[in-house]
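call fold(seq) -> tokens
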Amino acid sequence: MRTKIALLILGFFPAVLWAQLQVNGSMTPAQLVQNILVGGGVNVSNITYTGPNGAIGSFTNGQTTNLGLQSGILLSTGGITNVPNTGSYFLSNDLGGGGDSQLSQLSGGYTSYDAVVLQFDFVPQSTPVQFRYVFGSEEYPEYVCSQFNDAFGFFVSGQNPQGGNYNNQNIALIPNTTIPVTINSVNNGQVGSYGSSSNCTSLSYSSYYVNNTN
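ret:
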């Protein structure tokens, strides 16, 4: 089976409780995919990265934080070296990246900015194939249900083991729903101080939200 994966993140990573996280920006995107993202039994090719310099890298020491992952690849619309700091560092760290049409669609049609895209083909030697991810945003909690709807997409194209084919299908969804992962769908269950209930996708999935803001 030959499958194409595109990883996209739009949003800042607030890190009030991630101070012990260790980040490294020395690897190339190809090295990150081949050495960190995929495990044994997977062949990868055609690795491409679109995004600002300094917005992609690796992280370790996650077990000392409430991140939920010990190590992995880090994609950020702010500089990755600022991730172990507070959200205020990102507010003054605009990397000037462009948007992405797929992310704009996920966020409800709002214009996207500073998109980070990692794309590659992979051929697994067996099934199933599993990826784990954590989505974070500096916009929490004030901008929940606002037009600043940071989003994450995990798009798959290729053969579906259950039959047929995937065509840019986003599999980063709230479990057992078709709702994409954004701050307007995964949040603390309350409209933010700069938000409006008319912009909400959902306030019903706070069980997937971890408060890192204090």
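The helical segments are 29-37, 88-91, 101-106.
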